[in-house]
Amino acid sequence: MKFPLFLLFHALLASAYAEYRTFTDTQDRTLEAELIKANTTHAWLRLRGGRVVPVNRETLSEADQTFITTWIADKVPDLEVTPDFDRGLSKDRGKGSSSTRQTFGMRVEIKNFSPKKELEDSEVVYYLIGRSVFDNDQYKVLSRQVFDISIKPGDTKKAIFKDIENHFQEVERSNNGKEKGRGHRGLGYVLQIQRKRDMRLIYLGSSTSLLDDAKEAIISLEEGDETDETFMTKDEEAKMVEKSEPGKPEVITIK
């Protein structure tokens, strides 16, 4: 699934951890964002609203290219991240045959392969995503959990998250023609690891191809947030539209 992401010029919300700077593209357009991940071809920028967007490095100025190269030199250790995600499914007793209970467990083993560099104080963030039983284009963050971790050189640690129960009722048509159903069916997870001191993105993965396409958007969400297929909340979508109206400041579209 592909959907448009926009880089905005103006601040939406402040962040206590963010180290924002002004980035300039090859057409001399500017924006404020923080760099949280980069490789030889792309940079991932976090906007003030929390959304993370990938940018082709070739579209940025020479000064920004130098900044990114220097930033990459401040490496995090090489890690092996192994999620252990398990799920169960059963009918809820006493709630009718159409009522279903899901259980989800998540444990993540993280190995630091570096012989010298420690993984400094970091957060392992686990998002459990559900899809509406009424509308396949509607989603919800069923749970967002955070596990604090640091790992010495050569060590292995586990992040263990609280088990989650999720209840939903499949859509059914009754004798009078009305449809009934409730809740969101658990779909899968997105897993994020970020360093606390600069919120640098260390790892980002997911359990399904659909969530993998949307993972940069999902990590800007909070528990309980409901979204459409773009994985943006209604408030955020409204701000996007307002910023792109005629007469408003120009936006940069990232492809």
What does this protein structure show overall?
This protein has 255 residues and is mostly beta strands. The chain has two domains: 88 residues, SH3 type barrels (Roll), CATH 2.30.30; 146 residues, Immunoglobulins (Immunoglobulin-like), CATH 2.60.40.10. Helices cover 13% and strands 48% of the residues. The chain contains three helices and 16 strands. The strands form four sheets. Strands 6, 7, 10, 11 and 12 form a five-stranded antiparallel beta sheet that branches. Strands 14-13-8-9-15 form a five-stranded antiparallel beta sheet, covered by helices on one side. A hairpin with a 3-residue loop joins strand 3 and strand 4. The N terminus and C terminus are likely disordered.
Q: What is the topological layout?
A:
Elements (H helix, E strand, L loop, with lengths): L4 E3 L13 E4 L5 E9 L3 E5 L5 E5 L5 H12 L5 E13 L7 E14 L6 E14 L6 E13 L4 E5 L3 E10 L5 E4 L1 E12 L4 E7 L2 H10 L7 E2 L6 H10 L8 E3 L1
Antiparallel strand pairs: 1-16, 2-3, 3-4, 4-5, 6-7, 7-10, 7-11, 8-9, 8-13, 9-15, 11-12, 13-14
Descriptors:
16 strands; flat; 5-stranded antiparallel β-sheet; 255 residues; 2 domains; SH3 type barrels; disordered N terminus; mainly beta; Immunoglobulin-like
- Which class do the helix and strand fractions yield? mainly beta
Mean pLDDT: 83
CATH architecture of the largest domain: Sandwich
Largest sheet geometry: 5 strands, antiparallel
Specify Rg, calculated over alpha carbons: 21 Å
Q: What's the number of domains?
A: 2
Give the helix proportion (percent range).
10-25%
CATH homology superfamily name of the largest domain: Immunoglobulins
